[in-house]
Amino acid sequence: MQDMNLFNLFGNINMKDALLFLPDAVFIVEEESGKILWANNRASIIFEVAREDFVGLYFDDIVAQGMNLAYQSSVKDTSVIGGAAVNDKEFFVELSANLLEDQYFVTIRDVTEMTNILAQAEKTGKLNKDKNMMLTKLSSEFKSPVQSILGFSQALSDGLGGEINEKQRKYVRIINKNATELLYFMDKFFEFAQVESKLYNKQLGMFDVTELIQNVIRDNEVAIATKKLNVSTDFENIISKNIYSDENALKIILQNILEISIKLTEIGNINIELLNPPLEDVVAVGITPIKNATEHSYMLIRVSDNGMGLQENDVDGIFEPYSQLDKTNKKNLVRSISLGSAKELVKALNGAIWLQTEVMKGTIFSLIIPVENGAIPQDE
Questions:
Q1: How do residues 285-301 score in pLDDT, each as one tens digit?
Q2: Backbone dihedral angles phi then psi of residue 36, each to the nearest 5 degrees
Q3: Which CATH topology does 1-112 take?
Q4: CA distance to 166, 269, 316, per residue, from 264 (Å)
């Protein structure tokens, strides 16, 4: 391949190998002309083009409106979905780009299979249980390579593979950032696959719900501190803090909700409130009260923030991940997967979950669950 700035940047053989053998396709593209300057081995496999044959091609030749997608990804600091076509082969790709000096550093994943599976799931209303079981059982096999990339990229950044200059460090940080985002997405995806396939086994018992909430807040201390948010709690209006439910399921539900509230809130407050709702409110959200139920039998958990809120088109199908397939914003899909898991777990607890939101005023997530023994069926 012809000489270029990138090769001058990669004075360290570890850096060359890291990019050459990444599991994602990597392209270096000239910003002004849109010409491809370099590609790694995975790019050759995905696009079925020899590495040397990429040089001189225009990026738009292999990815529809590729330069426009690279610009959008770079400016918005997010991945975008696009179409690709090479040698009569058409497929979908997830593209992430960063502009460094006058060149785009582009990573691409072939998401055709996942898109096809999810599109079919949207039509049928649910994924095949056997497929979800397979995904759940193979989750560690999928995540291990990504965890390895995270570890080695961090080691390179820390200088364990030799000294690297500032430009090299920028590329390592990009690798680490993308791997971190991918691992987070995979965690949420496999979590949803497990819950939806009914592989999650409930463990019911008594526990202190206020202590659980405080633990969830502590688990998110770094994200809360980074944004300098104030997270408050209001436990004054509950009859008892000891409830009968599935502690781990409720922790997953609250973790997913709090993560979303934190991401939606740049400046301000998040409040978590506990209430014992009137029975008419329980019935109003579609829950059939247990025999001899009182308002003590149920608990309302409300997580409210004064963040940016959500647009109306972002709220449609927000608890249904498959309905998000036609939206190019990856954040919408990840958010919907997290809330999809929460909804399935709330349903397993014989509860209900919903949200209210207004742009620039904030979002309120609410859920009602039974908190008395006998109100939640045991798994068979």
A1: 998 888 888 888 999 99
A2: -80, 130
A3: Beta-Lactamase (3.30.450)
A4: 32, 11, 17
Measured CA to CA in angstroms, residue 305 lies from 154, 212, 258, 275, 321 at distances of 34, 20, 10, 17, 23
Q: What pLDDT is stored for residue 11 in this prediction? A: 46
Tell me how crowded residue 159 is: count the other CB atoms within 10 A of its CB.
10
Does residue 332 have a pLDDT over 60? yes
pLDDT score recorded for residue 377: 64
Architecture label for domain 204-370? 2-Layer Sandwich (3.30)
b/e sequence 299-337, b meaning 16+ C-beta within 10 Å: bbbbbbbbbbbbeeebeebbbebbebbebbebebbbbbb
Axis-axis angle for helices 139-157, 129-137 (nearest 10):
40
Cα 237 to Cα 51, 190, 198, 247, 343, distances in angstroms = 65, 36, 34, 21, 25
Q: Say yes or no to pLDDT of 356 above 80.
A: yes
- Which has the closest alpha carbon to 27: 87, 109, 101? 109
pTM of the model: 0.61
